[in-house]
Amino acid sequence: MAMAGGFGGVERHLRDKRILLVDDEAELADMVATILHGAGFSNVDVAHAGTEALACIDERAASPESAYQLFVLDVMLPGMDGFELLARIRERPAHASTPVLFLTAKDEPFDRVSGLSLGADDYLTKPFLPQELVLRIAAVLRRCYAEENPLLELEASRVNFATAEVERADGDTVLLTAKEHEILSVLTRNAGRIVTIDALCEACWGTSFGYENSLMAHIRRLREKIEANPSRPASLVTVKGLGYKLVKR
Fold this sequence. Notes:
alpha/beta, five-stranded parallel sheet, four-stranded antiparallel sheet, 10 helices, elongated, disordered N terminus
């Protein structure tokens, strides 16, 4: 199906984002998956109930690089409705801020407000135009995932993710370790937003249990490489009681 061009084209860096579609109507779910594949999205999984969706999410949590990057949820699901499912998803540190779009026949204003107040990024009612669905999904992904740039400009340094090099303002060049590179990559993808300690550990070690001290040690060494004054960081800042935030120049 040559839909991508007809839908204005989805940017290349968005097409490989992993999407979980949850809808109990198998025929409709297959149709939506076909629409998304036709628009260029290459990683679309389908679940038909909340429990099945959570099982898929937890299975992928063992490998952070394969975690879902967008959820498309129906509201009227058997057993656990879409609102409860979203609340359960948000309990998982790795998905505390993963974008969500509700795709549902529930079109009352109260339902829309309920979905958005739970932290959904958009709400589209059935029936829908395939083109609008693709454009809405692309818009959500575009807001949440900026095009990846190998260069990160900070207050006192420049990081080249392609070579794992940090060019400091004093003229020195230092290398990032593999784990430092991974931590900084996660923070960069969420630049300007707080990333909790649990979420960072989950993303970089696959679990939030037992790695807090290790994370703090890596953060300290990262600051020594990217900050002019590691004891008063301007780029990798601590948000007391919550986690860390990366501030780009």
